[in-house]
User: Fold this.
Amino acid sequence: MKRVLALLCAVAMFGFILNPSYVDAATVNPKTLLEEKFPRERLTVSKSVDLNGDNKKEHMLITDSGNFYLINSKGVIVLIDTNYYSDEEPTIHILNISAKEKHVAVTLDYLPSNTELLVYKFQNGTLKKKLSVMGDVGLNISKTGEINQLWKSHYPEGGWEIAVANYKWNSKKDKYVGSGQLP
Assistant:
C-alpha cells in the first residue's frame, strides 16, 4: 500500500512539474520572464512586493522603452501603461494604505524641478490608475499614502508662490481625495 501511495505521489508530482501552463512567479526571475516574453525589452527599474496579501509577490517593471509592466503572482505579464520617460531614472514606491492594502506609485522626474506622480491600486489581477498629478516644485509621499503636491500658483501680474495640495486615499469612494490648494 505504501509503494502504491508513493508511486501515485511521484506521478502526481511529475505531472505537476511537466505542466507547461503552471508558472510559479515566486521562483521565476521577473527579468528573465520579461525577456522570454518580450526579447527586445530591457529592464530599467523593478520592484517586487506582495500587493494583495496572498504571500506571493507581484513584480512591477519599467523598461528602457518606457513601458510599465506588472507580473502578477500567477506569472502573467500585464502591460499597465506606456511612455514612462523622464530625465532621471523612474522610481517605484509602495504605499501602505492599510494593513490589507498597498498601492504602487511611480515618480518621473523632469529637470529642473517637475515631478510626475502616478498611483495605482491592485484590482482584479492588474493595476488601475487612481491618481495622476504633476508637482511643478516637487512631491512628498508618506509611507501611509498621503501625498503633498507642491506647485506654482501664478499671480496675474507675474511671479508665483508655492501652493500645496494634499491627497489622501478614501476607500469608500475608491479614489484619492484632494484638499488644500488644488491646481
